[in-house]
Amino acid sequence: MLESAQALIRKTAEKMKLDEETIKRLIEPEMINEFAFPVTMDSGKKKVFKGWRIQHNSVLGPYKGGIRFHPETVREEVQALATLMSIKCAVAGLPYGGSKGGIAVDPKKLSKTELERLSKAFAARIVYVIGENVDVPAPDVNTTPQIMAWMLDEYQKIKGYKSPATFTGKPISMGGSLGRTEATGRGGLFVLQALLEKARYRPAEREVSSPSNKLTVAVQGFGNVGYYFSKLAHEAGFKIVAVSDSRGGIYDKEGLDPVKVMEYKKKKGAVSGYSGKKVTNEELLILPVDILVPAALENVIDEKNCTKVKAKIILEMANGPLTEEAYLYLSKKGVVIIPDVLANSGGVTVSYLEWVQNRMGYYWSEKEVNDKLKIMMEKAFNDIWKKSASRRIPLKQAAFEVAIERITSAMV
Asked: What's the pTM?
């Protein structure tokens, strides 16, 4: 993953004719913080965990990036994600650099008190390398607003003063922003709508100039991002015909109501069995739909299945859902691919709005947050669309060029 991220930046930078030293600054992280720290378990025994906070680039502003808890977390993964956060923040037009944190742990195997002690122990390790003007962590894989609350509490105890802007993705009671839960899915919808408005997309030889024409959508991944994207897209007039979770999916060409599907999932533990035809996650990717939304895992579309993909638009709501081989094949085939660094940047954009609210001590309504998100996502898309159209390059290349231009213009 790290090699892929660095190669993509290098390839783009070389096409932009940047010198080798500038390319190195774009690739290499500014700071790697690695920790081994003990946590007292409920048994009374101490267990040592390994964690990282990698700070990639800060020329545009404070570092920004989530903290993940996963048993397979390694330094290379955290560094890759920090690198891509620098690109994502620049693409979104945010005054942030990129960072990422992680602990190699399976949080499902911890009690609530053990999870709290782990979170606070990690916060104590990173306390002197983060801050509202230095590095602003947020939730990521397997971390939650509650975990951010524990970390912020520990940070403030050690520092001796209140600093709610040091963490985002917090509970509302601790300064979290309204609209944050739905932000990533909502931002993806705003970008998709902006694309359709620009492209005047015509699937199957019929004019489609607005979502009310019932474009068909398949969504792989029915977690927070996939669910809220599906729900909001359904409300906007898109026809959600397929959704899936880790245990499989369902397909109904007449359309699904994501809210009812989620109600079923909460009762039964999976979407499969709700209605319509059962499909596997692999089958969902090659359904005859207008728009495909991979919102689960990376590398799900590869050289083996990309030739069977029928969608004309792919909205990358997951991080890196296409391999390089699949991306090249589908791009040449004429499939419009909205890259992850743009498509799923709604979350970090509302994290930025949370940070702003914390710093000024004034809080917006959910509608105000959503309105600001729409303006910012549309601007980010338009900047990339303009670059793509003027250079006649795919949106992904355009996104990376826009990001690299913004980062290098701030380098001294």
From this structure: 0.93
Would you call 236 helix, strand, or coil by DSSP?
coil
The catalytically annotated residue of 64, 100, 312, 387 is 100
Residues 141-183 have pLDDT tens digits of: 899 999 999 999 999 999 999 999 999 999 999 999 999 999 9
Structure tokens at 209: 């100039």
Query: Is 333 one of the annotated active-site residues of the chain?
Result: no
Please give the pLDDT value at position 4: 85
Is the separation of the CB atoms in 350 and 376 below 8 Å? no
d(C-alpha 51, C-alpha 68), whole Å: 10
Q: Output b/e per residue, 15-33; b: 16+ Cβ within 10 A.
A: eeebeeeebebbbebbeeb
Q: What is the C-alpha to C-alpha distance for residues 206 and 199, in angstroms, rounded to an integer?
A: 14
Strand pairing category for 239-245 and 63-70: unpaired
> What is the per-residue pLDDT for 2?
87
CA distance 394 to 313: 12
Q: How far apart are CA 327 and CA 302, in angstroms?
A: 8
The whole-angstrom distance between residue 286's C-alpha and the CA centroid of its chain comes to 23
* 3-class SS shares of the chain: helix, strand, coil, % to 5: 50, 20, 35
Burial of 37: CB neighbours in 10 Å, binned 0-12, 13-18, 19+? middle
CA distance 222 to 224: 7
Binned at pLDDT 50, 70 and 90, residue 412 comes out as confident
What backbone phi and psi angles, to 5 degrees, belong to 63? -65, 150
Copy the structure tokens of residue 385: 């669309």
- Percentage of the chain surpassing pLDDT 90? 92
CA end-to-end span of the chain: 29
Please say whether the beta carbons of 6 and 392 come within 8 A: no
Report the distance separating Cα 157 and Cα 163, nearest Å: 10
User: Distance between CA 269 and CA 255 in Å, rounded?
Assistant: 21
Structural domains in the chain?
2-167 (3.40.50.10860), 183-343 (3.40.50.720)
CB 136 within 8 A of CB 167: yes
pLDDT in tens, 275-311: 879 999 999 999 999 999 999 988 899 999 999 999 9
Contact in structure between 242 and 284 (CB atoms under 8 Å): yes
| H or E, element range at 31 | strand 31-40
